[in-house]
Amino acid sequence: MINLIPMTVRGAEKLREELEQLKNVKRPRITIEIAEARKHGDLKENAEYHSAREAQSFCEGRIQEIESKLSNSQIIDITKISNDGRVVFGSTVTILNIKSNEVFTYQIVGDDESDFKKNLISINSPMSRGLIGKTINTIAIICTPSGNVEYKILKIDYI
After folding, report:
1. In whole angstroms, what is the distance from residue 74 CA to residue 102 CA?
2. How far is residue 108 from each of residues 67, 91, 113, 147, measured CA to CA in Å?
3. What pTM does this model have?
4. For 44-102, what is each residue's pLDDT tens digit?
5. Phi then psi dihedrals of residue 103, to 5 deg
6. What is the set of domains in the chain, with CATH numbers?
7. Which terminal residue of the chain, N or C, has fewer Cβ atoms less than 10 Å from its own Cβ?
8. Of 15-19, 41-45, 117-121, 134-138, minimum mean pLDDT range
């Protein structure tokens, strides 16, 4: 059984753009670099050739990885889901750290999309796992390396 990889519409689009770039820009450029390096003679001691082949290997590996993720993806458009007041994949959650009184807003996204600096947290992060399924005004206890932290859910948006 194949495990589906959850991702937002935006995350799937970013992967498709990267795949397009790899296939139509980077791959042809590497092929030209390999052809140029071959012209320089002995391939055993040709650093440019080996460098280009290594770049080709990384490029092809990333293409396969992206194609696999996209073919096994479950793209979730949160805007098409009716907001039942629960934290779900794709939702944007505003929380209050009960101890410090700090307010944070995060969107729960797929692993490839997560970027803590942009407040995009992975569905597999401890924070997401602690928030999923909770409702407004409930307390979520998140296990952190420095101990449990309590957060009150202030707002849940499906945007």
Report:
1. 33
2. 23, 6, 9, 22
3. 0.84
4. 788 889 999 999 999 999 999 999 999 999 999 999 999 999 999 999 999 999 999 99
5. -110, 135
6. 5-76 (1.10.287.180), 78-157 (3.10.50.30)
7. N
8. 41-45
